[in-house]
Amino acid sequence: MGVFSNYFPLGLGTGRFLINRPDDKEGIEKSAQLAVKAIESGINYIDTAYTYSAGMAQTALKEAFKQTDKVFGVTVKVMYDMDKTAYDTQRRTMLQLNAMGLERAQFFTCWNITSYNQFQKIMEKGGVYDGALKLKDEGIIDHICCSLHASVSDSIKIIESGVFEGATISYSLLNAIQMKPVLDSALNNNVDIAVMNPLGGGIIAQNHDFFYFAKYENESIITAALRFAKAHPAVKIVLSGLSRETELTENLTAFTGENVESDDKRVMRVFEGIKEIDNFCVNCNYCNVCPCEIPIPELMNKRNTLLFSTAERYNRTEPELVKNISLFYSHSHSGTDEWFPDSPENPCIRCGKCEKLCTQKLKIIESIADMYDRAGKVNYSLKSRKERIEELLVNKNYKRVGLYPNGGFANMIVELYNRYWDKPDFEWLQFNSDPKMWGELSGGLRVFSPDEIIKLNPDIIIICTYKYDEEIYKSLVHYEEKGIKIVKLHRKTDVPWAF
Prior knowledge:
Elements: E1 10-13, H1 25-40, E2 45-47, H2 52-55, H3 57-65, E3 73-79, H4 86-100, E4 105-113, H5 116-122, H6 128-137, E5 141-148, H7 152-160, E6 166-170, H8 176-188, E7 192-196, H9 203-206, H10 221-231, E8 235-241, H11 245-256, H12 263-275, H13 296-302, H14 319-329, H15 353-357, H16 364-377, H17 382-393, E9 400-404, H18 408-421, E10 427-431, E11 441-442, E12 445-448, H19 453-456, E13 460-463, H20 469-476, E14 485-488
Parallel strand pairs: 1-2, 1-8, 2-3, 3-4, 4-5, 5-6, 6-7, 7-8, 9-10, 9-13, 10-12, 13-14
Antiparallel strand pairs: 11-12
């Protein structure tokens, strides 16, 4: 029996609760009620993290747990980019348990592993994994798992290492062909799988006519997609990120309603349908012959996203920007290597080797040119990020630079500055409106309350978020009257620096 075997096949994802900010009491209360309904309906695997839903998902869960006697399993997560030592790991775990009002968690997740190299760092003596082992020895956690955003080959190596009992991976109709080897490896190595993004980040639900082949008889596309994700024998749990009770009801139908098609037949039927989609890259890798070392399979697989329509993303509604957000978002949830160019200049020499080998007869040369062009327009390159930091911070004679909020974006700014301009001649300050963060260390820097902005008097505050940047800007702009410059990290045409 695997670690997920005794859990209901639909898991509760908590990253889409309708909570707008840490003081959104109404959003927290409604999210807590939604979680209660999910748990009372039989869902007993709860996937959460301290950054989910404006950082308040675990606060909502704390309220929900007070209102149910049902038995459940919950995750705590530690990400290497934020916490690197065993001590950091233990501290972050206890903060999450306190936020949820719990003394222990069933699942510890080494969160968002992006490469085998990062996995090796996690496994170093005194690192994240050692911290997890100590937590397990102390009875604070039961099982050590991981979530993978690495390439297929790296994901397989990590699974085959034998150190994780379960893994969360992205798997859906969008990336099923390329991710199947990862699932097969998990099955062969007795690693249970929980699936995230079974609806492809909403793309599948928004393009139900496109995926007609996935439906069996009168199924809805959501039911069909969820059942397909569960059909592989390695998959024990399919996560559903919930915002509303109607979504809960619909998603439950996939696992409580009659399912007359066998899993094997469903997988075979759907895989054949995927291969028949016009202009769809099936990730056969025959095009991987580029003399310029362009990662063609990764780019072409990413471009599948452009075949589909998509709605608002990250609070953005401009159609072309939304399309590009979906395009570059896809790399982090596809199981392919992350294509992140040093520069948006296209290195293709148009030799045509790739197109001659493409089984789908795709216009690869034209597609590559378009990818680099899009990367330039949305500032998706190392060169553009370096230029942005230089524009904001270099040679400005600042004494103090504020980053609001702390987290992944803030850490990226600090890391890139240190890489290209060495140690700054100014002081970094981090702020967060979440009281749980005050006084804590994030990326090695202390986190302050916004109430301390006037006292600390930064010369500039960079808004280090994407989804909520306009809301935070409006809450901070009055500080400009005090001589503090308020700027957003992302410009209007940018996609997020991190997804």
